[in-house]
Design goal:
The chain has 28 helices and 28 strands. It is globular. The two termini are about 50 Å apart. About 55% of the residues are buried.
Amino acid sequence: MPGENLSRDEARERAALLSVDGYDVSLDLRSAVGDGPGDGVRTFRSVTTIRFRCAEPGATSFADLIAPSVTAVSLNGKDLDPGAVFDGSRILLEDLGDDNELVVDAQCAYSRTGEGLHRFVDPEDGEVYLYTQYEPADSRRVFANFEQPDLKAPFRFEVRAPEGWVAWSNGVGELHDGVWQFAETRPISTYITAIVAGPYHYVTDSYSRTFDDGTTLEIPLGALCRKGLARHFDADDVFLVTKQGLDFFHDHFDYPYPFGKYDQAFVPEYNLGAMENPGCVTFREEFIFRGKVTQASYERRANVILHEMAHMWFGDLVTMEWWDDLWLKESFADFMGTFSAAEATRFSNAWTTFANNRKAWAYRADQLPSTHPITADIRDLEDAKLNFDGITYAKGASVLKQLVAYVGRDAFLEGARRYFKRNAYGNTRLGDLLSVLEETSGRDMASWSRAWLQTAGVNSLTPQVLLGSEGRIDELAVLQEAAVTAPADHPELRPHRVAVGLYRRSSEGALERYARAEVDVDGPRTVVAELAGAEAPELVLVNDDDLTYCKIRFDEGSLATLRERLGEISDPLARALCWSSLWNLTRDALMPARDFVDLVLRFAGRESDIGVLQMLHTWANSALTHYAAPEWRDVGGQLLAEGALRELRQAEPGSQHQLTWARFFAAVASGETELGLLRDLLEGTAKIDGLEVDQELRWAFLEPLASHGVADEAALSAELARDDTASGKRHQVRCLAARPSAAVKAQAWAAVVESDALSNALVEATIAGFAQPSQRGLGAPYVAKYFSVIERVWEERSIQIAMDVVKGLFPSLQDSQATLSATDAWLSEHEGAASALRRLVLEARDDLARALRGQACDLAAAG
């Protein structure tokens, strides 16, 4: 990473000096197949021609390129000495003219880390697959360029690929004399250009839309995956959601899809969920389901498809000037993904999933010491890489939902339409969007922005209910305060548009809403006048319908109601909001972990929403692992295992609830009886009516068996032989690292920390298996080792792998004051370490300190 960073100041200086007219990029990828060179660095030829103008003739600037070697460089027809102008990450450009042409002939490296041009060899059939991933700044690993979002330009790509391959890029491609030539793009940023090449399985369809003016838009659709996954690929459903999304965005944006074709590539060993490359969107191939999954998985895929589609407008057509305003694309795409899923697809409950899942990510991120305003201060590319976080995505989307409630849906969408038309193919800052929203809504967007976009931290809202003598509400107020654990420099109290709902038992016994009022909460106490005189409630739900971004708290009466009758709330969204609030109470050490586990055991079996149920399982396991007092863990684990098995046996045979409980049972099984049942289900000597133990479920059962020493290396090898695929290999590597042996842990540690031989996917799998809650003793020796290596790892490895190692191997299961002190000592002694590395360690430290507070709360509850 040294020398590969780019500061905001450098980018601004270069943008003031240069403007780019176009790129021609030629890649020769025939070296992707066959034996590689003896030194293990496999390269491809990249020839780039950049046409650009300079505002100050005679000035000096630079182009970006990360490559093992450069063969030739010419500037305005003059050959330059590559050794003199190329330092490994930049090409020095001196004495620039008004109009310039730079030609760079380089040998660039294929990637095994998912950054740049990633090369994957399928273990199933030996086929090679390539794809690119660049955000925020890895296109310079594939071709020479000016790697910053505000130097947009048209691109023409050509690819020479091995015989029999097909190549895809942002534009339509045609094969001429063995070379794939792609249509020139509209002006776009470097980080959203794309190349996909290989013997992919490819399915096509088309989308047609006739607009009110009589014009018709035809969009060729494509979907592709590895040949080994073709039998599992449900492309019809991908196309269905794609067409529904295109209809939705055309209905609401009044700007036709601007990038011609629409291919969607599901690719192996992908670091992200997906990437919005216009005309050639890439996704992680795990969205192709090899076994039975629940509707929550299909909903998640649909949301990601729609998220990336929203980027075609928010991010690709109109792009932020610098990464400070990353929210201008990610927050909007996250919001629009859920908005369109709820209104245009079969996933009409998408806002429930958002409230219970996506916002949990935001609440966690917003209480970390690294919390930041949605419009962040991004000093350089390393800052940018870390800001693809819960603030930028989920909090930003939550705040946009609040904005819709604040300005009104029509004003919000009209603002978006004007924003696209005024800034098409350009770059924007915060003010560009606020100005159109102020026009369409008449609201003071500057003050709203200061409160919501330019400050950090989450508020909590608590109802205060005063009852009169006749059992009716005398006064109901909403109290607002900064969150209990908010950083001292983020005490902001914000304006909230909220709905306050009153709930009580119906004649059928369900808890149902009987009164609701919307109010603008502003300041520490706001009276909800509309609810005065209403009958006394059993439950008051602040932020009913989830209009704002806040932590919901409860008055004593409401909390008592939830403890006894949470499962009786009839509305799925209201129920999800209550669950989310109770989880936040647990994380904030205001509710004992054992109480949360008890609520899950008593009420999760009645949860109808499968996505909420899966989140409850995740939270319950986390409560036991991190927040329960160590003395209670064995008891709590047994209770969860027994409860999960009970619900598994009672679930409707063959239902998605049955599958979800089966997976949770495997996740918490630890006793001899439970592990024996998992083994018998694998071997077929035990059956649960309706439960199909397919290959993916087999691996889910094998991991706990491996981590508890029941399944050995031979058993895992036999399973790999049964599932000799890329997915099977990842599962096997994770299970191998999970075995309870000091030698196993040493081998896994060395494979990840001391070697760079593993691909990104196998690094991820090894880390996932390394630390097991039942093996805390085996992890103890790695506390000191962790702090002794992370700075070296950060310096030597790619930023993606370094992030995976620093986050994934932090000794969070060594949850003691000693580990906290070791973390503090490292931070104190390494004040000069890279700021991005320090941020990751600070975040892990905060999670550990929070766990210790939770354990103290849980221990106190035991008396």
